[in-house]
Amino acid sequence: MNKKENFTLLVTEQNNPDTVNIDTCSTLELVRMINNEDKKVSLAIEKVLSKIAPAIDKATERLSKGGRMLYFGAGTSGRLGVIDASECPPTYGTSPEMVQGIIAGGNGAIFNAAEGDEDNEQGGAGAVKALQVTDQDVVVGIAASGRTPYVLGALKAGNDAGALTVGICNNPDVPMMKIAQITIAPVTGPEAIQGSTRMKAGSAQKMVLNMLSTGVMVKLGKVYRNLMVDVVPNNEKLVDRAKRIVMSATDCDEETASLQLTQCDYNVKLTIVTILTGNDIQKAKRLLEENNGFVSKAIENETR
Fold first, then answer.
1. Model pTM?
2. Exposure check for the chain: N or C terminus, fewer CB within 10 A?
3. Percent of the chain whose predicted confidence (pLDDT) is above 90
């Protein structure tokens, strides 16, 4: 750790004058204060949309060729990366390897704080090397401060491996900006509780990760219109969702959707294409393969 570093210069570590009475006010006023601070999050993200869009496009290029998107973080930032990564397989039918969350201190740190591990730059670099990162991959470093050694180590190692590196932080003019090829920095300001970056900073990171992973999945053809057509229907709720997706996409009735889903082994994309094109299952499969899994392109090219 660099003992000379002045953490008080970080916006996220400063005191918030709008919440100095949070310990003596009424409960209603307490939650109003927090809510007023939370309103600033989406406005901060709006200012960095021009950074998020190219990150999505460049990440899509790599994942479309078999690459991976790997999130590296410590503490809250690491946990948010793990959450976002773990939700991709059930939502978009991805393999667990495509989007991964790696947290300083290992999986145990998801549940129990391992704060000391965030200061280990070599730990971040070692995690990248252990995953055998290549130029097809995307290394995403997440740190509210923009200077967490573990995260910076991962980004540096990602650069050395030729990967696309993306930084997500909540402070301006931080070391991350000199390392990551793209830095997304929604500056959310001082927290309601000084230094508690699980609040506004964490909310902003979650929203950026939502945009990043959702944008990539849309660009990979895992969404038709605004429907998650690569959903894996492996429980009762998701089976019902798959049926409703088919009904919405094709304007068919419930009986038709259920029957066709069963015949297509609950492959939602395949079900939609068979219904909308009138083709049999094998022809519909070929159409999807020829159009890289994009439902809209498969339907368009068949009906020309």
1. 0.92
2. C
3. 89
